Amino acid sequence: MRAHRTYWGLRSHFYCIVILNGVACMEFFKYQALGNDYLILEPRWFSETIPPAFIRQLCNRRFGVGADGVIIGPWRAPDGAYGLRIFNADGSECEKSGNGLRLFARYLVDVGYATESELRLSLLYTGEIVNVSFLRTEHAIRVDLGSYCFDAIALQASTSQEQLRNYPLEIGGKVFTITGVDVGNPHCVVWVDSLSAELARTWGPRIGTCTLFPQKTNVQFARVLDRRNVQIEIWERGAGYTLASGSSACAVAAVAYDSGLVDAAVTVHMPGGQVQVDLNANHTLALTGPAQRVALGRVSADFGSQMLA
Q1: pLDDT in the model for residue 302
Q2: What is the DSSP letter of 64?
Q3: Measured distance CA(32)–CA(242) in Å, rounded
Q4: Spatial separation of the C-alpha atoms in residues 184 and 95, rounded to whole Å
Q5: CA 262 – CA 253 distance, rounded (Å)
Q6: Residue 185, annotated ligand binder?
Q7: How many beta carbons lie within 10 A of that of residue 245, not counting itself?
Q8: 300 assigned binding-site residue
Q9: Would you give the DSSP letter of residue 263?
Q10: Which CATH code for domain 147-289?
Q11: Residues of the chain with CATH 3.10.310.10
Q12: Does residue 17 surpass a pLDDT of 50?
């Protein structure tokens, strides 16, 4: 049956209660942004602890539903913000996801939790608040992702240097010139002359898990096309090779802008599509791109039941 539902002071008009053999099935929405896909689940399905093994199984593309990550929300956060938690496909909790934030904002409007054209989202893992705007004329969503920095401490890098700028990193007999940047989560940008998925799949995990980054890092291989365009391939520390990543796009744009290689408005081209990143001199940035609902589904009542018990 279909019913209105109120949860933590938030009311949805798109909610379907499904009972199979007397057990309520866990519902999910699937959304994608340029091939970067997330499952969105509501908090009511979980206790305070969300088992990483359940997230991994759910994201598995052969034994589960399949996704690059899971978003859980909304919680009603302070100051009227909509709270969410973001998890990588490996079960680890994510500080921030540019694509994930746009998808969650789209979800809030799609199901009727929100009707505003501007929203405030609260990343419960870090406590950060971000502003989101719906650009009706462009059918896109803009997320103000806040500030970025190059501090090695923010990157949790194992080095005595204050920053990792044009840092020579030797891996497997090759030397890569890298720059580390934090945009709410850690990234390592590697400039190259030519790009391929194989490059990211082969060297991304080796760089991202090397001793310089004991907590691991996201890795982008990038090249500048012109003052307004860059192209990248991505390896994410929690999901592996991905077709698109909003925070990765922001990281590359930030490094390119800080190095004087691009203008303040830059289009980042990824295998899954493109986004726009707007930067300014005070080290803040905004990300604009699409978000699309793919499906509404149900997880079998016995799927992961032992992990959630």
Answers
A1: 79
A2: S
A3: 12
A4: 6
A5: 8
A6: yes
A7: 31
A8: no
A9: -
A10: 3.10.310.10
A11: 5-139+292-308, 147-289
A12: no
The three-class DSSP label of residue 205 is: helix
Chain centre to alpha carbon of residue 175: 29
Residue 23 is predicted with a pLDDT of 55
> Cα(first)–Cα(last) distance of the chain, in Å?
26
Task: For residue range 123-179, list pLDDT tens digits in order.
Answer: 999 999 999 999 986 679 999 999 999 999 999 999 999 999 999 999 989 999 999
Does residue 78 have a cis peptide bond before it, meaning omega lies within 30 degrees of 0? no
Question: Over the Cα atoms of the chain, what is R_g?
Answer: 19
- pTM, two decimal places: 0.89
Sequential DSSP letters for 72-129:
EEEEE-GGGPEEEEEEETTSPEES--HHHHHHHHHHHHHTTS---SEEEEEETTTTEE
CA–CA dist 41, 18 (Å, integer): 15
C-alpha span between 207 and 209 (Å, rounded): 6
In the beta sheet, which residues pair with residue 287? 143, 277
Cβ density class 20-53: b for 16+ within 10 Å, e for less: eeeeebbbbbbbbbbebbbbbbbbebeeeebbee
- What six digits make up the tokens of 164? 């990792």
Instruction: Dig out the tokens for 223 from the structure.
Output: 């090249």
Q: Which of 29, 49, 48, 47 is nearest to 39 (CA)?
A: 29
Q: Is 236 annotated as a binding residue?
A: yes
Bridge partners (DSSP) of residue 17 are: none
Residue 154, pLDDT score: 95
Q: Is the per-residue pLDDT at 36 higher than 70?
A: yes
Task: Label residue 4 by pLDDT band (50, 70, 90).
Answer: very low
**Is 57:51 a contact under the CB 8 Å cutoff?**
no
The architecture in CATH of the region 5-139+292-308 reads: Roll (3.10)
Short-list 277, 117, 255, CA closest to 186: 255
Q: Is 218 annotated as a binding residue?
A: yes
d(CA 237, CA 261): 26
CA distance 116 to 124: 21
**Residue 248 above 50 pLDDT?**
yes
